[in-house]
Amino acid sequence: MLSRAVEPGDRTTSSLVRQIGPQGAVREQLAPKADSGLPDRLREVDPVRELEQAERQGIRFLVPGDPEWPQGLDDLDHIDSVQALGGTPPGLWVKGPMPLTELDTSVAVVGSRALSVYGDEVARAIAGTVAGAGVPVVSGGAKGIDFAAHDAALLAGGATVAVLACGVDRVYPEQNRRLLAHLAAEFAVVSEQPPGSAPTRIRFLARNRLIAALTRGTVLVEAALRSGALNTVGWAEQLSRSVMCVPGPVTSYVSQGVHEWFRRGGASLVTHGAEVLEVVGAAGEHLVVAPRGEERPRDQLSRSDQLVLEQVPVSSPACVVSIARLCSLHIRDADSALRRLESSGFVREVEGGWRLAGAS
Predict the structure, then answer these.
(1) In angstroms, rounded to a whole number, what is the distance separating the alpha carbons of residues 17 and 11?
(2) Which Pfam families does the entry mention (predicted)?
């Protein structure tokens, strides 16, 4: 009844459910109130019929306390948010065979609908790596970064779930019909909106908090300054989930919001999926080896041999005495180093002293 009659993110309802339970919340909300149509909407709901209709469509309804209920959603009742929307939803409508308990280790990948070629490439690389490692990818089922993340996760043979701002029996956007149908058949599409509900701006914003709460961390790939994806990472930050941002070109309009989030602090910089797995993994899990530049043969030399090599001229030869003086070494030590460098092909002895090998 509450899911059908109350708009998502209604803090009053979530507070009442927390304090006096769902039945008490219904009784409280049924009391006549000035300028409120909620009592009438509640009376119009036939919960038995709603659940029977949903079951016929392969849709199940989860509530807090159910074995499949994602416990991360309960955290929404324990944050003091300045946003108007919030709170744990009274329930979730789910279509698809994947148990939502599998989202305990999941990662959200979100970003702009108007993605660039760069954003598409990076989102796909990150989502593919994460999903390929057995970590489910969660996104919003929209165009742009959302679609790239879902699609790449599927191509990698991994699991992915879409959290919608409309009913799970609706298709939005139409361009993603095949994707959403596949997720509903093989994985899961999720919404706090009951079947038949249409998407609205408020419902999109309310949906964002669910994406953040269902996952261990949120990756922001591309987002303009007013992108809705920034709302998702805002919720992730408030929920003490990991926030990870992918830097873009400083001239890119669709990366301005990402860069502004970096300036605020609190986000981890990630450039590929392995770094995402390291951030959300348990201690010691998915450790990333720090990248190093290409190793050169001289990098294998001892410090004293490198010091001597630096003082060997390119063209005009230098005597061992001069080289030793420049290196602050004993002549005997400098000579030994030169002999080792010669055997390794770095220097050669010519008339008048030493110079670099290969110099004309």
Answers:
(1) 10
(2) DNA_processg_A (PF02481)
Q: Which two three-digit tokens encode residue 250?
A: 């400083």
d(CA 64, CA 197): 21
Angle ∠(77,82,87) on CA atoms, nearest 5:
20
The angle that helices 145-155 and 177-186 make with each other, rounded to 10 degrees, is 50
Please report the pLDDT score of residue 291 as a whole number: 57
Q: Which two tokens stand for residue 263?
A: 């300036």
Contact 139, 109 (CB under 8 A): yes
Q: Is the peptide bond before 317 cis (omega within 30 degrees of 0)?
A: no
pLDDT for 289 equals 57
What beta strand segments (E) does 131-192 contain?
137-139, 160-163, 188-191
Is pLDDT at 127 greater than 90 in this prediction? yes
Q: How far apart are CA 73 and CA 89, in angstroms?
A: 8
Q: Quick one: average pLDDT of 70-88? A: 84
Q: Which two tokens stand for residue 342?
A: 């010669």
Contact 93, 207 (CB under 8 A): no
Tokens representing 207? 């949906």
- Tell me the pLDDT tens digit for each residue of 325-344: 999 999 999 999 999 999 99
CA gap 257, 331 in Å, rounded: 61
- Compute, in degrees rounded to 10, the torsion defined by CA atoms 179, 115, 235, 243: 110
Domains observed in the chain:
1-44 (no CATH), 46-280 (3.40.50.450), 297-356 (1.10.10.10)
Span 11-70, pLDDT tens digits: 888 889 999 999 998 888 887 775 567 888 888 999 999 999 999 999 999 999 999 999
Angle between helices 117-132 and 145-155 (to 10 degrees): 40
Q: Mark out the alpha helices in the chain (DSSP H runs).
A: 2-5, 11-30, 38-44, 47-56, 117-132, 145-155, 177-186, 201-214, 229-238, 256-264, 273-280, 303-310, 320-327, 331-343
